[in-house]
Amino acid sequence: MTIVLDKLASEKAGINVFSGTLADLIDAYQRKQHERLSRGEIRNKPRITRTVNTWRKHFAVVFGPISEIKLSAMTDERWQEYVSYRGKQLKLSVLKDELKGIATLVRLHGMALGCPEIPDFDHVRVPKQEKSVRTETLTPDEYNELVNRLRNYLNPELGPDGFKRTWSLEDVFKPAGKKINQADEHLRRHQLFFLVQILASSGLRPTELCGKKLSSLRWRDIQETDVERDVLMAHNKKPSGFKQRAVVLSVRDETKTGRRAVPCLIGNLLDGLKNLTPDFTKPDDFVFCDRHGKPQSLKYLRFHMNDVVERWGFDRFDVTFYVLRHFYASEALKRGVSTVLVSRAMGTSTENIENVYGHIVMSEESMIRQLYSLD
Length: 375
What we know:
It is a single chain. The chain has 13 helices and 3 strands, in the order αααααααβββαααααα. Helix 7 (182-202) packs parallel to helix 10 (321-334). By secondary structure, it is mainly alpha-helical. The radius of gyration is 25 Å and the shape is globular. 49% of the residues lie in helices and 8% in strands.
């Protein structure tokens, strides 16, 4: 009798007791993605894991236990609760991407499991006070692990053929050719090793270093200085015992703060880049160039970066080159560097720095450092 009454009460409330749950919806997505992985249609397993974990975590916070929430109760009004909740945590562009993924999830899997409608996120409006542009970035330990992974990536895989790659440079979903150009592969992997460290040490945008003919850094844009200091491992915790030279980079792109000169401790890294392409070290030559002196493809380097992250298995968020710019800003602000100096080095406004990294600037540790000038 209890079951019958529960069923009648649920139906009266517009809930189909035979519909699937939010957990079923997520499981259906996960099964489908794993099928695509096995067929080679996609290859980013960490992204699948990250997406599934995000949905499980935040759906549970907003709607309750996902194994108990019926999809037949998930009306457009219910999904708007999720918008309000996530709008406090994400900047609008990231929020819209996430909501687009949820709408696709419901369209492809939810309707068959009992969802009454596909949520309409086309006109998302997040109240101004709820907007946040807080951006995920690496911790110092994660950054050091990434550098170690990149260092291992420099070594050819075991076997007589040298470097191996299962994916094509033209399309990561296509298999690599029968024979990989070992010289090109060696150059790109080593340039990636230096690129990641320079991005993390300078805060430059990726295209300000390489990839575009007009904006890519050239050797004439580098000014040497007499400043040297101990390189700090685990980002400013333990001295490593060797000196790193400071240089000043003249950025070619003009930003909202005008043209800028960026001081950074990367002299030894630049020496390593010169050794990679010794025939192209004249003033007008590109710092990151291919074996013919042309700007190195940023797309190819991104593919290699994705390969490193996939082998690592990191799935907390997408690790892109731009994440290293956020890492630079976060670590500088944690050390007590002023928002004015950080914004000038990064070529953005002080207001933007405060909006994105305000949680760091106003942290208790950072406030103590600024108030009492602690090193």
